[in-house]
Amino acid sequence: MTNKTDERVPVNQILEGDCIERLRNLPDNSIDLIFADPPYFMQTDGILLRNNGTKFEGVEDEWDKFADYKEYDEFCSNWLKECRRILKPKGAIWVIGSFQNIYRLGYIMQNLGFWILNDVIWSKPNAPPNFKGTRFQNSHETLLWCSKSKNSGYTFNYKTMKQENGGKQDSSVWNIGICIGQERLKGEDGKKVHSTQKPEKLLYKIILSSTKPNDIVLDPFFGTGTTGAVAKKLGRNFIGIEREEKYIQEAKKRIDNTNQEKNELYNLGLEEKPPKISTYDLILKNKLIPNEIFYNSKGEEICKILKNGKVSDGIDELSIHDMPEKFIGRRMNGWEWFFVKRDGKLKSINDFRYEVKYEREN
Fold first, then answer.
1. What is the rounded CA–CA span in Å between residue 295 and residue 324?
2. Which of 102, 306, 308, 353 is the most buried if burial means most Cβ atoms within 10 Å?
């Protein structure tokens, strides 16, 4: 993974120091995507106790403390100005926050000229409860996905995300558990290294949906390097900015232990013109099996694939594009409409075309 556009851009590096100062040293129009997980200014008062009496380790770090909203707003305005400056004309930014700060961030971003494309809800099925029982459980955070301006272009890999969502259009509500278990980095004392480590699955969706291979993804609040690790895995470049040495060391180890994964999906094969591979070709390649059942996205049995590559419902023998019309009254792209079962799960027949294409190229 390399960047040949500007030698001043420190690709695949973690820059230690204040995020605003470091952002100011980056050239204009040099970054494809920014993911920002800034301090939330949580303003937590007192000690939170679990039902069993033990202390809940929330966000008590110094980097999350500000004198008041004025100081917080000034800080956010300054780093967001720099982010907008360094974004390429068709670049985009994702900013995450909770009820404490997301409305302030959105207001500042709109005033700076950013254009909100979506507000995405990160719904957390395993969020901590409200221990005092005085409010609803806070079980989501909000992501603002914005282009540089109202008329700016941006990358959105629609077909790729539809494929990831089981063949259905992906939505703005993402059900992803918080970072726990082996993914949660812990120190020798058994405590969390970082209080707000984000799950890799969240960054996976962000980076896969809105970047191309070899794009540069910048994270001005790098923490323990989730953005860098996922970017490397997907074949993208990263730049991290972080002021805490302890986080930087953990991030470096994490990224060094991460390998790029070769995957046609990550290379955006679905966004390209589909390969000219027929159902008959897939039968010859043993990707599809004669007489196996074809399903729709709901898991309903529709027909069987024949040796000649056509499909039959026991009455008519049709192409994969004509058969859907018999059931729903309109002709459909059969590559996107039909599924088979592999290991008990539905798998789009379109996947097999790209598998064959990838095998031919490698």
1. 11
2. 353
Reference 47, options 37, 64, 59, 36; nearest CA is 59
Amino acid at 256: D
Separation of CA 138 from chain center: 22
Contact 75, 66 (CB under 8 A): yes
**Looking up tokens 């278990």, which residue turns up?**
181
Nearest by Cα to 131 from 40, 42, 46? 46
Structurally, at CATH architecture level, domain 13-261 sits in 3-Layer(aba) Sandwich (3.40)
Three-state secondary structure call for residue 14: strand
Q: What DSSP state is assigned to residue 284?
A: H
Is 262:344 a contact under the CB 8 Å cutoff? no
pLDDT at 55: 43
DSSP of 299-316: --EEEEE-TTS-EE-SS-
Could you report the per-residue pLDDT of 209-267, keeping only the tens digit for each? 999 999 999 999 999 999 999 999 999 999 999 999 999 999 999 999 999 998 888 99
Contacts of 137 (CB under 8 A, 6+ apart): 127, 128, 129, 130
Separation of alpha carbons 349 and 280, rounded Å: 12
The full set of domain ranges for the chain reads 13-261, 273-361
Residue 52 has pLDDT above 70, yes or no: no
Euclidean distance between CA atoms 196 and 184, whole angstroms:
10
